[in-house]
Design brief:
Number of helices: 4
Strand order of the largest sheet: 1-2
Distance between the termini: 23 Å
Structural class: mainly alpha
Order of helices and strands: HEHHEH
Largest sheet: 2 strands, antiparallel
Number of strands: 2
């Protein structure tokens, strides 16, 4: 139960940061906004693996699910 609560709080934080940059509420943010938002979340936005993952998405906009994947990837690589 405690783990689920922690995951819910983390998901809420990720969504809150994503929504800060999704100012037009279209459900997407661009790459510079993505990098800036990760920096706000104290992630290493200069990590080359991050750029590889962004490139694998194949476009210049990031949706929420992709953003969550990036965040999760950053957390795993920093542990």
């Amino acid at each position: 139960m405690k783990i689920q609560k922690q995951e819910d709080e983390e998901n809420s934080e990720i969504k809150e940061v994503f929504d800060l940059f999704d100012t037009d509420k279209k459900g997407i943010i661009n790459i510079p906004e993505t990098l800036e938002s990760l920096k706000i979340m104290q992630m290493d936005e200069t990590d080359p693996d991050l750029y590889d993952l962004i490139s694998s998405f194949g476009n210049t906009d990031i949706n929420y699910q992709q953003f969550k994947t990036l965040y999760t990837s950053c957390v795993k690589s920093s542990s």
